[in-house]
Write a structure and sequence with these properties.
Elements (H helix, E strand, L loop, with lengths): L6 H16 L5 E6 L6 H12 L2 E6 L2 H11 L7 E4 L2 H9 L3 E2 L4 H6 L16 E13 L23 E2 L6 H14 L1 H13 L9 H10 L4 E5 H8 L4 H8 L1 E4 L10 E9 L5 H11 L2 H10 L3 E2 L9 H6 L9 H18 L3
Parallel strand pairs: 1-2, 1-3, 6-7
Antiparallel strand pairs: 3-9, 4-9, 5-7, 5-8, 5-9, 5-10
Helix pairs in contact: 2-12, 4-14, 6-7, 6-14, 7-14, 8-10
The protein binds fe (iii) ion.
C-alpha cells in the first residue's frame, strides 16, 4: 500500500517543520519516512507517548526522499530518515546524507552485519527489521521443485509463467544486485534475459499484485517480500485469505547461498537540528515494543536477538537460511544491474 505524496501536503509539512525548529528544540522530531505501512502510526504514537517528543512526518518513496534531501542540502529540516531498502541506505551514506551515531544501546541491540560500517565515530545507519524476497507459485499448476531457486525463474520449462513488478524497483534491484555477486555479470545477464523470456506479462504492479495474479492463474510464478504474504494470510478479507491459500511459498536457494534478505533501516540526517531526539528515536526502534510493532504490525522479522515474537503467519512460513552478503556490495552492484536490465529489455 503506497501513500500518495501530495505536493501541497508536503510543502505544508515542510513549513510546519521549519517552524518547529524555532520552538521548543528537543520536543520535536522531523521524520522523513519511506515506510509505507499503515500500522506504523501506532509505532510513532507510542514514541510520542513515552517521550513527549512530537513527530512531524514526511512520507515519500526511497528515491523521492533521497532526491529531496539532496536538494534541501544544509537547510533540510530532516532529523531522522527511514528507508526500506539496503541499496538505498548504502547510496544515502555514500552521498553524505547521514551522520555517524555512537550509541551503546544500538550497538548492543542491532547485530553488527545490520549496521553501517563503523570507522570509529559509529555507524551511519542501522537496520531495524528484515524481509525475505521469496518465490510464490500457483499450487495447481506448478510443482515446488520447479521453483526452488532464483535461477529456476529463467529455466525454459517455466516459459510463459513468470510475473514480477518492475525490474528497477528497489526490491528487485537489490535482489538482482545480490545475484550479480553470487553468479557474476555474464550469468546474471543471461539469467535476466531468461526471466524476461519467461514472463507471462510485462512487469507491472506491486508485490501484492503479483501474489493475486499467481492466485488467479494469470501468472503461475512470482516474487514477493514476505510481509505482503503474511499480510494477506492475516487479512480480515476472506478473498485475501482464499487467494493466498492457492499460493505456495518457496524460500529460494536453501541448498546454496540462501534466500535474499533486505532490510528497513534508519539514520540521523546529516544536518539534524534535533540530534538528541533523533538518537532517542533510533534507540526506541530497537526496543522490544517497537520490534514487536515491526513483527506484528507489519509482519517483518525483528532484528534484536532472543526476542520472543509470535506472528502466526511468519511462523507458518517457517525458518529459512538467508544469504550472507555485505549490504554495501548489493548497493554497489545496483548501478551495474540497471545497465543489464536496459540491455535485456527488463522494464
Ligand atoms: Fe514494501
Amino acid at each position: 500500500m503506497r501513500r500518495a505524496a501530495l505536493p501541497c501536503a508536503t510543502l505544508l509539512a515542510t513549513l510546519a517543520m521549519a517552524g518547529g525548529a524555532h520552538a521548543d528544540d528537543e520536543q520535536v522530531l522531523n521524520l522523513y519516512s519511506a515506510r509505507h505501512y499503515q500500522t506504523d502510526q501506532a509505532l510513532y504514537d507510542n514514541f510520542t507517548k513515552a517521550t513527549g517528543i512530537k513527530i512531524n512526518r514526511v512520507d515519500a518513496d526511497d528515491a523521492g526522499l533521497l532526491a529531496r534531501l539532496k536538494s534541501e542540502g544544509a537547510a533540510s529540516p530532516a532529523d531522522v530518515i527511514l528507508l526500506v531498502d539496503a541499496a538505498r541506505l548504502w547510496r544515502a551514506e555514500v552521498d553524505g546524507l547521514f551522520q555517524p551515531v555512537k550509541s551503546a544501546t544500538l550497538e548492543q541491540r542491532i547485530p553488527a552485519q545490520l549496521r553501517g560500517k563503523d570507522d570509529g565515530k559509529g555507524p551511519q545507519w542501522f537496520g531495524f527489521s528484515t524481509r525475505a524476497r521469496v518465490i510464490v507459485y500457483n499450487k495447481a499448476s506448478v510443482s515446488k521443485g520447479d521453483v526452488s531457486t532464483y535461477e529456476s525463474l529463467a529455466n525454459p520449462k517455466n516459459k510463459g509463467k513468470v510475473c514480477t513488478r518492475s525490474g528497477s524497483h528497489p526490491y528487485n534491484l537489490s535482489l538482482f544486485g545480490s545475484l550479480l555477486e553470487h553468479m557474476g555479470p555474464a550469468q546474471t545477464e543471461a539469467w535476466l534475459k531468461g526471466v524476461v523470456d519467461n514472463m507471462a506479462r510485462d512487469p507491472k504492479g506491486g508485490d501484492t499484485d503479483q501474489i493475486k495474479a499467481v492466485a488467479s492463474g494469470e501468472c503461475a510464478i512470482g516474487l514477493t517480500n514476505t510481509y505482503y504474504l503474511a499480510r494477506m494470510m492475516r487479512s480480515g478479507k476472506p478473498e485475501d485469505r482464499s487467494a493466498v491459500e492457492r499460493v505456495g511459498v518457496v524460500f529460494p536457494n536453501q541448498q546454496s547461498w540462501g534466500t535474499h534478505v533486505n532490510i528497513a533501516g534508519g539514520a540521523v540526517a546529516r544536518h539534524a537540528r534535533h540530534r538528541e531526539a533523533a538518537v532517542k528515536f533510533l534507540e526506541y526502534l530497537a526496543s522490544d515494543s517497537a520490534q514487536g510493532y515491526f513483527a506484528n504490525g507489519n509482519n517483518e522479522y525483528a532484528v534484536v536477538k532472543g526476542l520472543k515474537i509470535n506472528n502466526p503467519a511468519l511462523d507458518a512460513m517457517g525458518n529459512f537460511k538467508s544469504e550472507v552478503i555485505p549490504i554495501s556490495v548489493v548497493g554497489m552492484n545496483t548501478a551495474r544491474v540497471q545497465q543489464l536490465l536496459d540491455k535485456v529489455g527488463y522494464r
